[in-house]
Amino acid sequence: MGPALLSAVPAVTAGSAGAIAAPPVDRIPAPAIDLVAVLPVLIVLGAACLAVVVEAALPRGRRFGVQVVLAVAAVLGAGIAAVVLGAQGHDVVTFAGAVSVDSATYVMWAGLLALSLVAVPLMADRVAEPGGAFVAQAAAVVGSGRDRRAAAVATPMQTEVFPLALFAIGGMLVFPAASDMLTLFVALEVLSLPLYLMCGLARRRRLISQEAAVKYFLIGAFTSAILLYGIALLYGYAGSVRFSDIAAAATGGAGSDLLLLVGIGLLVVGLLFKGSVGPFHLWTPDVYQGAPTPVTAFMAACTKFAAFAAMLRVLQVALEPMAWSWRPVLAVVAVISMAIGAVLGVAQNDMKRMLAYSSVAHAGFLLLGVMALTERGATATLFYLLTYGFATVGGFAVLTLVRRGGGEAPQLSDWAGMAKRSPALAAVMTIFLLSFAGIPLTSGFIGKVVVFTAAMDVGLGALVVIAMVATVVTAFFYLRIIVLMYFSEPKTDTVGAGMADGPVVVVPATVTLVVIGVCALLTVLLGIVPQPVLDVMSVHFPLLS
Amino acid sequence: MNGFPYLLILLLLPLAGAIVVAGMGGAAVRTVRLTAMAFAVLEFAFAVALWIDYRNFLTEGGGSNPFSATVSVEWIPSFGISFSLGVDGISLVMIALIGFLMPIVLGASWEERLPAGRTIGGYFALLLAMQCTMVGVFAATNVFLFYCFFEVMLIPMYFLIGYFGGPRRAYAATKFFLYSLLGGLLMLASVIGLYVASGQVLPSGTLDWAALRQIAGSIPESTQMWIFAGFAVAFAIKAPLVPLHTWLPDAGAEAPTGASTLLVTVLDKVGTFGFLRICLPLLPAASARLAWLFLLLALLGILYGAIVAAMQTDLKKFVTFTSIAHFGFIAMGVFVFTTQAMSGAVLYMLNHGIATGLLFIVVGMLIARGGSRQVADYGGVWKVAPLLGGVFLVATMATVALPGTNSFVSEFLVLIGAFARYPGWAIPATIGMIFAAVYMLWIFQRTMTGPVRGAAVVRPGQPAGPEGEVAVPAAATVPTGAGPTVAQVGPSADSGPSGAGLVAAAPAAVIDSGPDAHGPTRVRARFGDLTRREIAVVTPLVLAILFLGIYPKPVLDVINPTVTATMSSTGFSDPGTAVPAPNGGGK
Questions:
Q1: Which of B76, B173, B189 sits opposite A464 (nearest CB)?
Q2: Which residues pair with residue B502 across a beta bridge?
Q3: Which of A190, B3, B116, B252 could bond to B260 as cystine, CB 3.0-4.6 Å?
Q4: Percent of chain B whose pLDDT exceeds 90
């Protein structure tokens, strides 16, 4: 399904473009296709199709192992392919100019797959929540007889989530590589649709999960329409959907500026929505809260990465000639995002909602790097996304371990005295929180330094200062958790017998343990020796198109 | 120059100590404490060695390099960041002060009463970790590295306050952290700004201090002002200068004695050190332009700190407010731009560390005995614990800057230097000295002299404990009217709670008639004189106060070359004929 979709779209666009330029011919010229360059995408989407077959063909008992191995192997293989191809410098624009694969693309792919590699195994945890975090029959009406029956049958683990995740990853890979607007849109839909579904899969608190899915779907569909409308206007302006053509038309200054400006506005809103940048963040807290925690981790790390990577390419390749028009607007958006994330985050009592608002604030910081439109800015943004992603996945993984009465215990008060109950867990969480707050010796600090340096380089000093103040406010709610974990007494029930109701820390499954360990290690390591990764992630401008 | 890696050892030794001590979970308390002390003493030995090494560096002329004992490793080269350490005269003095104070602080915290469930091992490990970051911040010669240590320093202190502190510890710790983080992040904006500004002068940006100093004059003044603003806010919060000081009294009061001693004596000096290390040499135009503001804040601090200190009812808050007044003098010395005043300011940083360190430790000992931080709960302590009272008197004298104590030399230098350029600032600051005498002697009078009272009074909410045994017919005669006073006096002071010579009764009468007047009523000792351990802890501080008061030359010899260099980079020269810094001190 995936590759077919990919090749079909550019064929159509190439055809329509050709129809205008040349006299009608019977045969549509086949576009040049470099399959090697897009190998990582092919691996992931191929594995996704295979996973669907596995889901249909294998007996229930054996699916889990096969699916997990398949998903991890696909992500790992694609990652290796991306790294190898990137090292070879296999840069090419292929699929008739619909997909551009250059050094930046390989960096984005490698980063995205690295984050997926820690986020996907988290979905395979069957210890914290016996039978996995996912519902037996997602389609069943909550509380209906069918739902109860399905829940009562102790299934080993529902495994639809793995093919869905692979499809989403495939879309995320194409998203930042897209070099024309239609590919961008198709990739956005390919990555979004599985995510809508995955949000509704939570085994516990089904209603809130389904609410999240519906909310995400409705707002997402609405934003897709806005994005598409923006694309249509830009096509009307430039007469082409290719990024480079739009840039050329804008440089030439032909056509109506109104079409161009409104088109840019609508297009950028669509991208900001996926990146959960305020004020387009309204879905974020509800979806983060309602989705199964491993899915939340996946979304927070990978979707954000894909969205900002795509934004980098679109702004740099297609909209750079118009930077004077959108940069001030994005500056305001960045400030609003930081303000919303920081201020509303302070008022949250739920860990997942708090992390959601924190992600909105971080999106504001990230915009500074995106707006710079420099090599250093792009490198910095990708590095920030990587560090933020690892800390986020780690943080959510820790969240799955603190439970109360079978479900997760996301209330802040449940974390009181965590350092006494589980010192290692509290220490690891502290590392992630300090990284979010940007304290030196954590990766988050280096991320902030490189992004803010890039922004300062192009004269965005005032925004940097605002970002610093916002960081202090976010630090307040990160600190609140540290205060709870270390300085408060554990919440003990008044009578000894009530311990069953109190929050407990479950012994993590090996996968979760490994994920948390890797994330914590990388968070510290990237904070102490960032240079090798910064070198590897350095992006060369101009981006191919 | 790249000889023995003193600084690397000075940096890593406390860190290793912290790890070892933290890892000794199950070991006996005594072993844990001795291990920590061994690391601290070893560190001090290396600090002394570094001092000797620096003296040699000076006699050899030093060449063009402003720093001795340099270590430099590339860290993030694409952003001009290297891991570079080095000492000049100012940082050497501060590193030596840390090395000197650390064993004393550990000794003073030997039997610290920590909140339930906390172990002394964790406490000492955090103190040692603190030492590592403080050495780092003084030794860093790359602005980025300086920033890193500046921020990381928050974490051990945050946990020292929040995990081991007093009743309002969570509040105080959070306030401390957020205040410092706000300053720190604004400073980060300035660090980045400095990097970008250097990139406009040099082919590629750098954050190396020596390179930045070369180009300090080339950065336009308007840019300098912005960069200066970020640094200045950070340092003014850390120092702290008056409108930004409100975190210090809370943090200092709630932190356990050892931690608050470090907080006030060393950690706060990072602020004034930052002015000297970063603002003046790297941003000379902005520093000169805004000097008036800092002189104003300094004067405000001197007067405000003194007045508020006099009003304090909490002993630890009192000490922090006296420090705020003293930081005003230091800031004034930095910003009047005369060699004398700047030497005085650096010397003040050292002397304040010693004098206030002693004051804090003595107050901590007092609080450990009385179980209360309230001034009103003490009275006539000198009669009960003469040694404690004596040491308190020495600390008082040093804080008042009486001639013969170390503080006098530095305060005098600052005021003389300030007078030479800005008499208008110096004269009101002199009033601060009078205020110091007022608040310090008043507190001495209230706690140490007069009738014995208060120390063992059972306050509401405190379990009655040993007082249950006391026959209390005299309760009505106790001045506070709240309960009996229990005191231990007499020759067996060192033996702790042995029970010998215990008295409990209406205080004045009993004390006057001596310990033997009362026979049978015996209670557990609450108010002994200094133990041998405590004497060992305070003796080096008392000796240092007297020695530096009489003969500050060794320290001034180390400080002066660096101060001269800093002065020359600010572009100011001393008004009139340059007055050589006095070598003899205040006799």
A1: B189
A2: B488
A3: B252
A4: 20
